Amino acid sequence: MSMKWVMRAKEKGAKVIHVDPRYTRTSKISDKYVQIRPGTDIAFLNAIVQYILENDLYDKTFIISHTNAMYKTNKNFEFNEGVFSGYSDEERKYNTDFWAYELDAEGKPVKADSLDDPQTVFSGLKDFYKRYTMEVSSGITGIPVETIKEVADMVVNNRPGTIMYALGMTQHTVGVQNIRAFGVLQLLLGNIGRPGTGINALRGEPNVQGSTDFALLFNYLPGYLSYPNHNKPKLENWTASYGSFRAKFLIHLLKAWFGDEATAENDFCYGLLPKKNANENYSIYRIFETAMEKKMKFLYIMGQNPMVSSPNLSVVHEGLSGLDTLVVADLFMTETASFWEKPGCDPSTIDTEVFFLPAASFLEKEGSLSNSSRMVQWRYTGIDPVGEAKSDLDMIDLLFNKIRDLYKDSSEAKDEIIKKLSWNYPTEKKAEAVLREINGYNLKTGELLNGIGEIQADGSTAGGNWLYAGVYAGNENLSKRKDNKTDPSGLGLFPGFAWSWPGNMRVLYNRASCDVNGVPYDDEKKLIWWDEQTKKWMGYDVPDVPVATDGPDTPNGQKPFRMNGEGVGRLIANSYSDPDYVNQTARDASSVPADGPLPEFYEPVESPTSNVLHPKVQINPCLKYPRIESKQPIGTKEEFPYVLCTSSISEHWCAGTVTRNVPWLNELVKETYIEIPEKLATKLNVKNGEKVKVRSARGEIEVKTMVTHRLQTLNINNEEVTVVWMPYNWGFKGLSTAASTNLLTIDAGDPNTWIQETKACLVDVQKV
Predict the structure, then answer these.
(1) Is 464 contained in some domain?
(2) Domain that holds residue 299
(3) What are the DSSP E strand ranges found in 204-316?
(4) Does residue 397 form part of some domain?
(5) Phi/psi of residue 536, each to 5°?
(6) Helix boundaries (H) for 557-686
(7) Do the Cβ atoms of 353 and 477 come closer than 8 Å?
(8) How would residue 431 be classed by pLDDT, with cut points 50, 70 and 90?
(9) What is the pLDDT averaged over residues 485-513?
(10) Is 336 part of a structural domain of the chain?
(11) CB of 329 closer than 8 Å to CB of 301
């Protein structure tokens, strides 16, 4: 869906660079295709950053004004032999205080007089990146030096520029740091907050953004508020860690959940929330592992098919087999709902009781979707649900009301959360009622909120997600708006089409599109500006500033990255908390990556080579894997000599639950296959379409081959490395059944998000 806009940009003169382990349809339309070894993105990007720093190609005005480049670092900050200061080898974690700024007597960061001061963030940046020469990067990535140089020049000479990425960048044990590498690059080039810039995630499904906004992630509450841990038993403990600015939004959320039961005297029912163990991993992998360990008895799965989409499927299957009860809500009998029918499995050995709930399809339910650009759009019902199928919303509503009825007479403290929860949705137009609750109300007047600025910390407002305050302003569902004609900016903002959070802002960090005086860097493509006559920030977009009337001559007027404590972009990450809470406009807490303040290259867990930058620290030092030795073996290059990269394909969607039940899509691509380069095919004496056995440390499958020019053998550290590729969209149910690629993949996860490293693991390939 996004490619048509890339094509349109190209028609207007934009240069397109595509970096991918194999040549694809995107590569075909690009001006420059770059083949890279899976898992080495940081080495490639850091070489470009090093080139920019060495040759003074950065945007000096931008980094001085809008980043922490001039801030002085703590004198204890250093990087040595693969780890940053503050690392504990025993705990495999960092004490992030070692990355702190030097602070003045008021607790504010100290700024140097010059970028060249040896203690500045900028000097630390230059010292860190100097190891990443293009020659070193080439040896790690397999990309020729001249290609890295060509790409670096294209990026530097074609500003403004944007970066678009998907799971190819995130499904690694350094996934977060991959995106941090983008951040450092774009900040240096001044490519943030301006039209045509940014770092843009291309989601694989039209509501992934909406799902994460509403706490699909295991470590967040709605609106990306940190979920409370056991060491934060009271609201004051949570506030001390995450700040009063965010505590206001948590109280607002608790009032929506518990209504009149939530009062200041009882911590707004904060004590009723279950608390996570701060030392435990609650990711999807541990769900199945705890089921194997008999610590989890019941699992309810909707909108997901982990028996196809999760890595190391043997662990998933064993986990499901260890449950007492499994409930699956879906359109079709999926592999997850039918896990006991897996080929070779003996159902008589499985005691899990399985309930299947028929779910309505996307055509049969209404509600909002939030896309990659945070735009909230309303989707209407096309047809009524078929048979006994119900929408997700109706199922959850029905289920909770039944549960609450069962607990109504309970006197146990643990059941208070069910009894006190505010839950009373109408039978008709339920989705819009939920969106109004999400928008939020003024509890004194009963009126819907017009924006985030109306949210109060005293419990007088209530809403399901602070980010969405204003989506239902004026009692109008703004996600239904369809004005795609009116665009005063001429930049494609269309402010009257649907609604974007926060506050209908279309470009985040747009304060960075202006200089220190509030004057746009590019007057022909301006987004916002400071209006001296009205003494207010104005613009074609909603200004991304703390207070619209605080001008460039105030501290608030110089915070283009206002969600960071210091208000500027971070070249080196820092856990700084602003001590100034005046009018609660200061962001008094901000997070940092768990595995380092700068993106350092580490090899994947299964790698065909050693880490040439620091051989003693081969992989991400914060990684804890395997979690269960007997279930998570790690393959070596001696037994598994080829690098496997996996992904979805255009013809099928994710686990294939829907698309593999569409006959014409199955005609296009009917089964799992493996792409191998011609050189490997010759070595194995395999022709196109012939079967091979693909084996990893975790499992093996048989598939047909696609012998291709789209993959080439790479030269990695003076050794030949072969990359192969497979789609993961198949399983043993549906109209089209085939081998599951995720029987092979590894379930090692990024220590920040626990996303899996399914883009780089090791396999062997043999002719059948």
Answers:
(1) no
(2) 284-406
(3) 220-221, 225-226, 298-302
(4) yes
(5) -155, 150
(6) 663-668, 678-684
(7) no
(8) very high
(9) 97
(10) yes
(11) yes
Domain boundary among 346, 379, 406: 406
Percentage of the chain beyond pLDDT 90 is: 94
**Residue 312 and residue 179 in one domain:** no
343: left (phi over 0), alpha (psi -120 to 50) or beta: beta
Residue ranges of alpha helices (H) inside 347-391 are none
603, 618 Cβ separation under 8 angstroms:
yes
CATH of the domain at 740: 2.40.40.20
Q: Is residue 376 part of a domain?
A: yes
Strands (E), 113-236: 163-165, 199-201, 220-221, 225-226
* pLDDT at 587 (0 to 100): 56
Which of 340, 336, 229, 343 minimizes the C-alpha distance to 287? 336
Q: Do both 59 and 176 map to the same domain?
A: yes
Number of domains observed in the structure of the chain: 3
pLDDT confidence band for 589 (50 / 70 / 90): low
Mean pLDDT for the stretch of residues 584-593: 67
Cβ neighbours for 555, distance < 8 A, ≥ 6 positions apart: 567, 580
Question: For residue 186, what are its two tokens?
Answer: 């774009």
Are residues 296 and 177 both part of a single domain?
no
**Side chain identity at residue 445, one-letter code:** T
Q: Are residues 166 and 297 in the same domain?
A: no
Domain end point (choices 373, 391, 406): 406
Strands (E), 307-450: 325-330, 353-358, 367-370, 375-379, 441-442
Residues 6+ apart with CB under 8 A from 743: 312, 313, 314, 698, 699, 700, 701
Residues 6 or more apart whose Cβ sits within 8 Å of residue 410? 418, 419
Same domain, 153 and 301: no
* 529-557 mean pLDDT: 97
Q: Which residue, 209, 228, 276, 222, is CA-closest to 249?
A: 222
Strands (E), 133-281: 163-165, 199-201, 220-221, 225-226
